[in-house]
Amino acid sequence: MDICELSFSYSKNPFIDDLQLSIKKGTITTILGPNGSGKSTLLALMARNLTPESGQIFLDGDALSTMQAKTLAKKLAVVYQQNQAPLDLTVRKLTAYGRQPHRKLLSGWNQADEEAVQQALESTNLVDKADASLSALSGGERQRVWIAMALAQQSDFLLLDEPTTFLDVFFQIETLELVKKLNATKSLTVIMVLHDLNQAIRYSDALIVMKNGKVVKEGSPNSIMDAKLVKEVYGIDVVIRHDTEAGLVILPIGI
Q1: pTM confidence score
Q2: Mean pLDDT across the chain, nearest whole number?
Q3: CATH number at residue 190
Q4: Do the strands 28-32 and 206-211 form a parallel or antiparallel pair, or are they unpaired?
């Protein structure tokens, strides 16, 4: 995905101005920054939920602005921070909605649809929950169902907007481990927004660090993350250590 000279304004107030980015296919890229930094706005522009004032976003060489909705949905899936669906809906039924971009008018459910849903359920460890209603699931399990629905789209790109925000620590790690597995086994390109710096470092190939609508720094976690950057962006003092098992670890020490 290539972002070229992208600008966006809220109510005629410039926010993102002339942004340039290139996100490598087949990687996990995490967008970081404090509240109001522009990370969710950038993800919404990538998902075409917001329209840029100028500039273009290219997906596999095609401009998002010129792509038909179904064509885009076949290439790019999105899981939001908060997702709504009737709680009496079953896991399999919700997952099956991911096949909509592949369905033709008046066409019936076919073998390809069935196989895509089954693979999505298997990839997210939800086969044994397929006939359960959403109301019977934990928060972490529900998040997995939405990811399963995205997988059923069979898109090459997956956008995740703060996928761990409302989960406890166990389900946060479970969700991120799932994302890591999907990236490794399906060559899925993942672009996500996270708040937790240590989780972002551990589960990302590349970071995009934002503040006030601008990219402050981008690159691999080990190459860009240091105490000076954290202080500049978040306003806190930290110690950064290299642990033999956990890798790069950020420890806050004060404001």
Answers
A1: 0.89
A2: 90
A3: 3.40.50.300
A4: parallel
